[in-house]
Amino acid sequence: MAKLFTADYWIVLDDVQFARRDYQHRALLASLDGPWQPQWLSISTHLPHGRSTSIHEALLADPAHCRRRVAQLLADHYRRSAHWPPFRRRLEPVLAAFGRTDRLADVTELSTRLLLEEVGWPGRVLHSSDLLTRGARSQRLADLAWLTGATTYLCGTGGMRYLDPAAFRVRSIEVLPFVTPASGIWATSREMSAVHALMVAGPCALRRELEALRGRVLAGDP
Prior knowledge:
The protein is about 40% helix and about 15% strand. It is α/β, with parallel strands linked by helices. It has one domain (about 1-220). The chain has a two-stranded parallel sheet. A two-stranded antiparallel ribbon has the order 2-3. A two-stranded antiparallel sheet has the order 4-5. It is globular and about 50 Å long. This is WbqC-like protein family protein. InterPro entries: WbqC (IPR014985).
């Protein structure tokens, strides 16, 4: 969530291949009061076209069961947080979505929007399936950034291993590495769901942390 908060646009890559057992399919939760026993939150997913199924084509295998699992696991891990009661009320539209759609992308995007709204992110959301691009990987990402009028592309540590900066330079777009700190509230941020940080710090304190990190990243001093 920290990288999304720093950005002005979130382009949902909904037309890329869905990958099981990746962070697009699951999130890691951990209780606040120990013992430290992280648990994966994942939901049963049906891929109509097998491994070639794109994210926006993936379907919930059992929406009712998925709703119960999400609600129960979040409550099990975070109900003792002082910030849980208001968050639980805000979670209702996400849980209700399981009764309206069987598309995985609908529910996952809505849940991410909820987290961004909790910390007051003012940016815009776009979808790659609505935008005309060419090529793959670096070229495609550069095209997507250019279509938003971006001058900077925020790239996480994973992306920096394969990204070709030349594809961005021809568009006059700077590739800015995004690395979260390894201490404080950010100590587990690369693995843990953003819900964890929200339940530890609360929305107001988390927003202050995010704003401070955004300032450091954009100043080139992460």
